[in-house]
Design goal:
The protein starts with 24 loop residues before the first strand and ends with a helix. The chain is built from nine helices and eight strands. Strands 7-6-5-4-3-2-1-8 form an eight-stranded parallel sheet. With 267 residues, the protein is of the alpha/beta class. The chain has a single domain, classed as Copper homeostasis (CutC) domain (TIM Barrel, Alpha-Beta Barrel), CATH 3.20.20.380.
């Protein structure tokens, strides 16, 4: 199990969270404490805690967050989302800040959120407000980016947002089955995108080496680590471990190849 760094960030009792940008990271979605054992034993680096909704994943109850955080030493990022759209209101925004503070007080290491405006652009005002209301708290932008009209412009707006450590994307609202080629091309053409990108949403094993060669080292798994690819099943350690080995091997090979290319170029 990878060590979770601890420290006082001044909000609640949540631990400090820090990673070297080039380290491979495997994030696994969990729904409740019964998913923890499989994720931990399989070698997950981080947990993404959500509550299943009728149409989309939503924010869990603070009691669930507390239960999960008590069961694991892994960093837990919790989803901030109160409805199944990509927008939010002023009243919801205030509630989201309070909810985030509750999560951090329960032991969460970070949060996950992402909002669009009426023009289907990244709502940088809302995202900046949330991030600024939680100083020092790392956060990931979830797949709302796939619903924007111009993903490349959206990436330019995302880079530099305070506290942002990753952007989960499948390149298309229909998932990586449709968006893989465009997402890989975007990551390959821009190192800033590659550093933040966390592919998720139908990720296949065959995608991983190509993303790693593009400089991507973060990956998100959901159904892939559950028997039958069903959220009715618990996270399975064997499934997670197979992805862990694949990820570590792919990132190591990509790093060695990049170093060899750099040496050849400077010779």
């Amino acid at each position: 199990m990878r060590e979770r760094l601890r420290g006082d960030r001044g909000i609640g009792c949540a631990p400090a969270y820090s990673r070297t940008m080039s380290e491979p990271l495997l994030e696994v979605t969990v729904l409740h404490p019964r998913d923890i054992t499989g994720a931990q034993e399989g070698g997950a680096d981080r947990l993404h805690l959500v509550a299943p909704g009728a149409e989309a994943a939503l924010s869990p109850e603070p009691g669930v967050v507390s239960s999960v955080c008590r069961e694991t030493e892994l960093p837990v990022f919790v989803l901030l989302r109160l409805n199944d759209s990509w927008t939010t209101t002023g009243g919801e925004l205030t509630r989201l800040v309070g909810l985030a503070e509750d999560y951090l007080g329960c032991g969460a290491a970070g949060v996950s959120f992402g909002f669009l405006d009426a023009d289907l652009e990244i709502d940088t005002e809302v995202c900046t407000h949330l991030a600024s209301s939680l100083p020092g708290v790392p956060w990931t932008f979830h797949r709302a980016v796939d619903a924007t009209l111009d993903p490349r412009r959206s990436w330019r707006r995302l880079v530099g947002l305070p506290g942002l450590v990753a952007v989960r994307s499948a390149g298309s609202p229909q998932g990586l089955a449709v968006g893989y080629d465009d997402l890989l091309a975007t990551a390959s053409s821009d190192p800033a995108v590659a550093r933040l990108l966390m592919p998720g949403g139908g990720l296949l094993a065959e995608h991983v080496p190509w993303f790693a060669r593009a400089g991507v080292s973060r990956f998100h798994l959901g159904r892939q680590v559950r028997p039958g690819a069903s959220y009715k099943s618990y996270v399975d350690a064997g499934h997670v471990r197979s992805w862990r080995l694949l990820l570590d091997s792919a990132v190591e090979r990509a790093t060695v190849s990049a170093s060899a290319s750099d040496r050849a170029s400077s010779a």
